Amino acid sequence: MDLRERQLYGIMILLLAGLIVTGFLFQGFGPTLRGFLDIQRHPARLINDYTSIGGTGATLVNAAVTALIGLLLVAITGVRLSGPTIAGVLTILGFGFFGKTPLNILPIITGVFLASKIAKKTFSEYLLIALFGTALGPLVTFLVLEFGLTGLPALVTAILAGIVTGILLPPLAMAMLHLHQGYNLYNMGLTCGFFGLFAASIITAIRGPIAITVIWNAEPPLLLLLLMPVLSVYFILAGIVMGKKDIWRSFISIQRLPGRLPSDFIDMASPAGTFLNIGLLGLVSWLYVFLVKGAFNGPVLGGILTVMGFGAFGKHLKNVWPVMAGVFISCLVFGKDPSAPGPLLAALFATTLAPLAGEFGPLTGIIAGFLHLVMVERTAAWHGGLDLYNNGFAGGLTAAFLVAVIDWLRTIKQRKEALKG
Question: Is residue 350 scored above 80 in pLDDT?
Fold first, then answer.
């Protein structure tokens, strides 16, 4: 492990350890542990805000421990900490605030591991699928707590279903990537949403419709209001420490990249510029929520952390603002409250479509964000909230639609130019 790798691990471990310590100090040791256990025993489908279920401290611990599992997987497989793996760990961290737990992600990771053996590949080749495939953790929890089984049969059914899910994710992920051509950064969101359609359909056929419920902490504590600015500054300082001489040049070079998958900013630019990009994206996302008077609760912090995570793997200030603006304009046109749960989360997670703005310009990004809000408010019901990356599902559909139209218009233009020539 070289110096850069050790520095990256140090930054991530210090971040997660700090969140665990903060959680215990804020809520107290006993209440935090009890809250942590309550979270493990609670349904995880969209939207269950763990800050309302286990408390703020317990949620911080759950998120950090869940993300540590992801970081440990990266270390065990020998994959370098880079843009995609950092995005994976920070995304798991974010969804540890509202849907992922150590218990519900492990069967899916096990399934992806078995898929690698079936395909005679190394687990490292499927690592990103394992990290992001944890979006289907709620399926495991649902089968334990909500399906209707109890005791050992419920547990066995859930574990087996999670393993089978993980086995099936790799071939689906590869097919979904072709659909949107890399313009949806949350490819596993589309993959898991597609899989979730079938899972929800089977479950509905067995036990009836899956009702969507929303647990949303409308009055989070001051700690959660301040957490994202603190973490953003932490990443900015980490960037300065890693490369203060070239940090600005590297940051500017990142802004010139379209962000289409795969775009590893750490390799394409530098860790220093990437961490500056991550930190500034965190501050901009936080500012948006603050300006629309949104609640800084578990799901919202999860959204901001996901934006920050992909600040190493496709998102930057230049390509995210048109998409967020498009969502906001869509709220105005259709009379929606931008601080309501759906529109607020859409503004953050719709940045999965940032590569469209990066490749085709701000207007395309605005159109993408505008359409995304319309789509995402429909898609959660399709999979019953089993896919935590619902915005990735909607984003993949939106990207596929827009890319098809853009390719068609390009073909017409090329034919016209050929005829003129």
Answer: yes
